[in-house]
Design a protein that fits this description.
Strand order of the largest sheet: 2-1-3-4-5
Shape: globular
CATH class: Alpha Beta
CATH superfamily: Cytidine Deaminase, domain 2
Bound molecules: tetrahydrodeoxyuridine
Structural class: alpha+beta
Largest sheet: 5 strands, mixed
Order of helices and strands: HEEHEHEEH
Strand content: 15-25%
Helix content: 25-40%
CATH topology: Cytidine Deaminase, domain 2
């Protein structure tokens, strides 16, 4: 599974986005150490704060299926179907990724591939 393939899976997942309030569709594709992929989309709610981001949807799907070791996540987001601009994961999602991944987790965006540590250089851990 290369970065481009992972991005395509994230774009496909964005089709399931439930984003009737923001109109912003987000998709993610999370690659496990054993090369399984869990996809996710954002799922909004009339009670706005209950919205779940696409990245956390994918992480929670994976962890609930017993997978906790990840090597990459691709994320795309757009309000007009053009996924060519990078969609940087929000701080909440970075913190959730940080729970399971080291700072070297690959974050594949439309423009280039980053690492978790690029966006979250200092992390909260207990
Ligand atoms: N969103 C994500 O899915 N991931 C992020 O990292 C940031 C924001 C979603 C939440 C909401 O449905 C929409 O984008 C607009 O904020």
């Amino acid at each position: 599974m290369n970065d481009k393939e992972l991005l395509r899976l994230a774009e496909n997942a964005a089709k399931n986005s439930y984003s009737c309030y923001s109109g912003f569709k987000v998709g993610s594709a999370l690659l496990t150490d054993d090369d399984s992929v869990f996809t996710g989309c954002n799922i909004e709610n009339a009670s706005f704060s209950l919205t779940n981001c696409a990245e956390r949807t994918a992480v929670f799907k994976a962890v609930s299926e017993g997978c906790k070791n990840f090597k990459a996540i691709a994320v795309v987001g757009s309000s007009d179907g053009d996924f060519s601009k990078p969609c940087i994961p929000c701080g909440a999602c970075l913190q959730v990724l940080n729970e399971f991944c080291g700072s070297d987790l690959k974050i594949v965006l439309a423009d280039k591939t980053y690492k978790l540590g690029d966006f979250l250089p200092f992390t909260f851990r207990l």
